[in-house]
Amino acid sequence: MSNLMLFVAAIIGVLGGGWVFRFLGRTFTGNKPYFRDMGLGVAFGYVLGALLLIWLIWAYGQSHSSDLATANKFFFLGKAVEGFFLFAAAAWVFRLFGRYVGPDGSRKIFRSMPLTASFGVLTILIYAFVAIFAAWLAPYGQEEILSSANIVPGGNPTVGGNPEFPLGTDQIGRDIMSRLIFGAQNTVGIAFATTCLAFFIGGSLGFLAATLQGWLDQVLSRGVDVLMAIPSLIFALLLMTIASAWAGSEKGLLTYYMILIIAVIDSTRVFRLARAVGLNIVVMDYIEAAKLRGEGLSYLIFREILPNAYAPLLAEFGLRFCFVFLTIASLSFLGVGIQPPTADWGTMVRDLAQFINFAGFAPQVASAPLLAAGAIALLTVAVNFVVDWMLQKSSGLKE
Amino acid sequence: MASILKIIAQRLALGALTMFVVSVVIFTAVNLLPGDFAQAILGQGATPEAVDAIRRDLGLDQPPITRYLDWLAGALQGDLGNSFAQANFAAFVGSDAGSGLSSVAGQIAPRFENTIFLAGVTALFAVPVSLTLGILAALYRNSIFDRATNILTLSSISSPEFFLAYILILFLAVMNPILPSLSNIYEGMGFGERFTKTLLPALTLTLVVTAHMMRMTRAAIINLLASPYIEMAQLKGISPLRIIVKHALPNALAPIINVVALNLAYLITGVVVVEVVFVYPGIGQLFVDSVKIRDIPVVQACCLIFAGAYILLNLTADVLSILSNPRLRHPK
After folding, report:
1. How many angstroms away from the CA of B160 is the closest CA of chain A?
2. Could you identify which of A138, A210, B220, B254 might form a hypothetical disulfide with A178, taking C-beta atoms 3.0 to 4.6 angstroms apart as the criterion?
3. pLDDT per residue over A273-296, tens digit each?
4. Contact A399 B30 (CB under 8 A)
5. Conformational region of residue A261, where left means phi above 0, alpha means psi within -120 to 50, and beta covers everything else
6. B28 — contact with chain A (CB < 8 Å)?
7. Interface probe with A: pick from B145, B157, B163, most Cβ of A within 10 Å
8. Residue B33, CA atoms < 13 Å, CB-side half-sphere
9. At the fourth CATH level, which superfamily is domain A176-395?
10. Is the CB of B276 less than 8 angstroms away from the CB of A231?
């Protein structure tokens, strides 16, 4: 109960602070309209924001305090603040770079790009680079079991680290950094392949339904309605049960089944969009003209509809990729997705999760599972930022 | 009034039809499994006679359509069959045949209640918070507050549930032991204790759902703010908050109801991962466990329940948004 009282008292205190802030603003600026018309709620927001900022700065200072217990308590907060500024700075530099280097077209794009989008593009590029060159970047193999297990991340020998393994090793002695790097290749690569497959299935069927219409459209649309009535993760889990029975002892086969299952489930969403976009396009005059010219079905779909449906499909590709990526990560986290010993972020989180409980006295130990989970989150956040920007740009909406 | 009843009846009929087709899909999918259960439990010692006996006992020798109808009739009466988990050879032979079998309904019932409790607590937090935040973001759009919430919500939507869950565990359970990180809920637990133990998974789900709901609320309201009647209200000199609450909100109700229902439906999928992280004894955990040990009747039943809840919530959203539209409520 006392906590609740404290909470209420804090709110009232901040509200009072807001009133004082507004009053001071009015007095010192000679009743400028900005302060004169300011609602108490807005003043409250400013004071609350300022207090949070001050607390963050104080906490960041604490994370570098000489007292180890205090520093440990604020370790993650400090790292988060550092990471935030690091990424923001990198995104800013990247945008600046893009504005002055490269062909005219890309320079123009960079000029109107918000910082979040440039962060997204930069992150996606880095992930792509790591995924493609994983075999050269990783210091060890993904399944290679090294001599020492349970080395603490950070590479600081005083707390149980080892500079040879900058991010430590897991319970059976595999290098976490190598597994993270190979995870980029496996997890992102599989998610990308699945999304492409889903787009191939859903996109072609959707355009076909839009062009031909009639009974094919009816059959496909009703079928998709039914498939979409089952929550996708649940349906994926059900089908994975069956797939695991089919695959039997061949665990490697399960990954291919998973790609197929998730691609089919997600293609229903793509189908909906492709059909809707296609239906808007087939009523255009140029389609009529092409039909009168006697063009075949494949010409209509690939030469007339596809180029005009490019923008919404690209944005959808980004969103779909996020969904597929998260579904695969969730399945792997639940233990039915990508099978060990293949390095994969979802599986890594599950395997390393128990280390979180050591965060109180050895925060470096607890960072291992968070690194893998963070790697997943960072990529989806980046893709979402880019998609958000693209949608805003293509719709031309300012609000 | 007659027309609206007709529309609602149509939707309900459509929902029932979808549910039926979904049950067919689930049943067919499960029947694609190679071999059958009788062989699986007997393992290597399977003699044709024993396999036949168990098949007959479980009705596996019937043609698929008969089995489907049996299953459906049972499911409608609340009998979802027997779990395979504890079933073994001994359960089928000797004098105490049938004693080792536990019914699926019996396994699901207590867990189902737990999951509903978790979803309820989540909705209790998520709905008011997200609506308030959405209205505030629409009110102060393009301000620092709006941009900060935009970035925060986008990040929390795109993070996997287990990432958010572990971050919350890290800060609220390990670094500052305020809440328990494991939700070991048992029968006969006091409400207060149960609530505390549910709080951390509920908070995780709230984070995921709130972000989505808030963004949609904001979008729905901003969409309306462009209409002429809002401009009129602005020109009259009404305060921005009043414009939003009194003029924009009633018309944004239909999309907002839709969003709330959709997100509650999303909760159903979300619970699976979150329940596993927190070892919360809900239906999602049962589902994942059954998937791992291939306990087909339980998987089938859980799937049916999840799909049913999903369809029901979407149906509710449909009906409610029809009801919130005055043009449909008072036809000319």
Report:
1. 6
2. A138
3. 999 888 888 888 888 898 899 888
4. no
5. alpha
6. no
7. B163
8. 25
9. MetI-like (1.10.3720.10)
10. no
